[in-house]
Fold each of these.
Amino acid sequence: MVRLFVGTFLEPHERNLIAALPEKHVFPESLTNRKIRWISPEKLHMTWVFIGEVQEESIKPIAEALTSSIKEYLKLAVSKMEVPSIKFDRIAIWPNKRNARHLVITASRQENAFRQLSHSIRKSMIPFCQGVQEEKFRPHITLFRISRKILTTSTPDLIAESGFDYNRFASEVMTIKSSIEPLVLRLNSVHLVASHLGSPVDAYQSLHSFSIRRED
């Protein structure tokens, strides 16, 4: 079995911008009472579709479906020259500040070219991931994750038994916005990615790469 998703990785400039954040924005453990784990630069990406666990023999038909979907997008795209992009201009705490698990950057709007590409990709994955039809697509980039494990129950300045000062945390993480706003991700390529997180490899592996640039 292999765990797959369809994603677009950040370009070096965007990666470097986010990689500098942990030094600029330090959040003390007394604020969250949990470990904060910043996403390493090489793993920064936007997910189009999370496919999940599949048999290895499914990789080829999934890659073929993606190839067809991108060819179809390129054939119907309004502009033959423009590479689709998305501007991430909002900071969000997911699922909410009281139960914070992820800090992400999101987009307030999606251009037509982006919508066309996302529709084509996600539609092609329906035979392999039925949940695509049910879930709302929320393009985002995860900046860091917050552990569920509580570090201590006796640290001063903590809120209730969880020790998470969520109001102060929500206020302070918003200062990150000035360091990265806006972040424009040009969608030059799409990847079929195998996730090895939690394994000894602990990395993402691009199995297939699909260019969004026209050849003509």
Amino acid sequence: MTTGEWAWLAKLISPVISMITPLAKSRLEQSQVVIALREKMGFPADHPPADFRGVYAYAIADYVTQRLVTLGDEKLKKVLALLTLPEIADGMRSALNDGEVSSLLEAGENACKAFAIGDELREAGVDEKAELTVLYTAFQQVVAKTRLPKEVALTLVLNEVDRKVDGITKDVAKLVEQTRKPSPLHELEAHLEGWFEALHYEFENHRVEMPDYFERIIRITQSDPIRRRHKTYRIVVRGDADEIKLSDLTGLRNAVATHRADGGWLIANRRVSPAVKKVMDQPENEVLKCCTFDELIDEDADFSQYLEWLEGEIKRLKIDERYVALACCKDEIDSRTQQRMGKSQYEDIDDYVAQWIDDPAKEHVSILGEFGTGKTWFTLHYAEKALQEYK
């Protein structure tokens, strides 16, 4: 069940809620009330469409007509607010499929526990199970009153089957999408492409992808200030998602010879083996380089000025002496309804941010708080912690 699937519910019931008080004050007969409600919801007054939405709309109109005098307008509005929840309509569909009301009553009970409307109904002395039972009876009566009740009932059941098949299809699509998540090797290649583009390196039209490595050729143009000209170097780049071993070094050396390149780089996600490091000074490896992606970035990225500023700011504000550890909280939001379900408390915000950094599925984190609660000091404090680890 998705929120989008039930977007029509609020549009269907909101106009009905707006009519409750005027209808309660009017002297219309029940038949006139039913017609007015059906037309307000945009359906013909005499015959419902043979789909779930049409029968549900007719059932709500009949329910409101039956309960308007007994409940009164204010209590009835609260019940209708409950009926705008997708969980209730989904429960009605399940009850239709099961042929009895228990699925609807269970959906109502769960919704009243999860949402604030449940507290409002209890405070008003409204029994949601009794009201949902009346609604279910009205629903069944609408089906029975149609010209071909068996046909309509079959159509509704088939609609339910179609809905479930559609849900299964979407679940399968999600699973397929998850299996398409980039592998560590593809992620490394994407990171290298972005970094080389930032350095204005050019890619040749050459790409090899194997189970344990990928291979590209880049062109690096450098200026010669003495001869006042530019020279372009061709470099074979191989990426390895695991550890660089001696066999990888041999493969790179052969690739450089095959493509008549000026050099070769082996870039690893994880590490370079000690055996490879030991032989890198040998003459046959003079034009080769082996390192991790982080080490590659450190060769060209100069963070010295920022690090000097950060250390100076920490000392100036005496954050290392005066900083007080902060707690934090995070709202738990229902992904379907976007309603707040609860709140998680964390004793130390450092621990929460550390968990977020280690989470491979992370997107972004926002530090929110009132003026003067320590947001800036925390970011400087945490940056200083990362600096010490970096050193």
